[in-house]
């Protein structure tokens, strides 16, 4: 419904009460800001009561205002420009304690991720990674940090990992040219979604590889090409992408894969500790500078 929400509001506009028309007009003209307003704040801005806003949501077929708000957020999550994100974040965060508001927002995203992520997809993803001939990991722009984090730890516990580095479509396809059904491809992308990542997932799916997406929603363009979808909340209205919940989910994925290879992981890290100590990779506690 979220993709057609504005059309639905416009179609139903003549049937709304006077107060509901104020709400409808504001949402149509300022949906990017309305998506992050409480019912009370939206009502204050357009000059109607909070109960009128709630009844407006019911009139559209939602169980309550939070469902309407969620539909608006899903509709715009991949559409907001950086400038729009700055404008919205200013409205949402205000001039209060930014540190507290941002950290509490991230905590809530982790809670929602834990409640909504598919355990079946998570477990199947873990088993696919452990049993793969080769594991490819791909993420660009802000998601590149997440892809690199996965690649760093998977390279310590697996011997068949390839972190894809690419500056162009041609380089991308050159690195995944030999994909086959025995391989696993992990794609990471959050709003605004990377076209290059979507192309990689589409190609991997066409080649019969097992595709695992780490993204935020069933509306993500990665979702349709994936065998297993690991969804993590990342919907902060800001020019900065909130990657706390995705990183927490990735931590769980790495730990779960490591537990499947517990003996090998133990031997690997025992050898690494010996090498790190011999070559002074880490500063020893109490050592003089």
TrEMBL record:
Keywords: DNA-binding, Membrane, Transcription, Transcription regulation, Transmembrane, Transmembrane helix. PROSITE patterns: HTH_RPIR, SIS. Residues 125-264 form the SIS domain. Residues 3-79 form the HTH rpiR-type domain. The chain crosses the membrane at residues 135-154, 236-257. CDD domains: SIS_RpiR. Gene3D superfamilies: Glucose-6-phosphate isomerase like protein, domain 1, Winged helix-like DNA-binding domain superfamily/Winged helix DNA-binding domain. InterPro entries: Homeodomain-like_sf, HTH_RpiR, RpiR-like, RpiR-like_SIS, SIS_dom, SIS_dom_sf, WH-like_DNA-bd_sf. The keyword Secreted does not apply. Pfam families: HTH_6, SIS. GO terms for molecular function: carbohydrate derivative binding; DNA binding; DNA-binding transcription factor activity. One of its GO terms (biological process) is carbohydrate derivative metabolic process. PANTHER family: GLUCOKINASE, RPIR-FAMILY TRANSCRIPTIONAL REGULATOR. This is Transcriptional regulator, RpiR family. It comes from Ethanoligenens harbinense (strain DSM 18485 / JCM 12961 / CGMCC 1.5033 / YUAN-3).
């Amino acid at each position: 419904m979220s993709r057609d929400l504005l059309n639905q509001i416009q179609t139903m506009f003549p049937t709304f009460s006077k107060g509901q028309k104020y709400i409808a007009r504001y949402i149509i003209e300022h949906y990017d800001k309305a998506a992050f307003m409480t019912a009370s704040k939206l009502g204050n801005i357009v000059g109607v009561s909070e109960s009128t806003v709630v009844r407006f949501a019911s009139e559209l077929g939602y169980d309550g205002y939070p469902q309407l708000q969620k539909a608006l957020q899903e509709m715009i999550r991949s559409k907001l420009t950086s400038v729009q994100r700055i404008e919205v974040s200013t409205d949402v965060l205000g001039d209060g304690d930014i540190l507290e508001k941002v950290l509490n927002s991230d905590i809530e995203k982790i809670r929602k991720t834990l409640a909504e992520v598919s355990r079946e997809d998570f477990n199947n993803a873990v088993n696919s990674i452990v049993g793969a001939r080769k594991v490819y990991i791909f993420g660009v722009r802000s998601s590149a940090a997440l892809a690199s984090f996965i690649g760093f730890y998977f390279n310590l516990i697996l011997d068949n990992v390839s972190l894809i580095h690419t500056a162009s479509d041609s380089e991308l396809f050159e690195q995944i040219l030999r994909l086959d059904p025995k391989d696993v491809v992990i794609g990471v992308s959050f709003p605004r979604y990377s076209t290059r990542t979507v192309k990689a997932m589409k190609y991997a799916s066409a080649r019969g590889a097992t595709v695992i997406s780490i993204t935020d929603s069933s509306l993500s363009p990665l979702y349709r090409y994936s065998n297993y979808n690991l969804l993590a909340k990342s919907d902060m209205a800001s020019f900065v992408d909130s990657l706390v919940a995705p990183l927490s989910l990735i931590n769980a994925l790495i730990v779960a894969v490591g537990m499947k290879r517990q003996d090998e992981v133990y031997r690997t890290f025992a050898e690494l500790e010996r090498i790190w100590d011999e070559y002074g990779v880490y500063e020893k506690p109490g050592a003089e500078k």
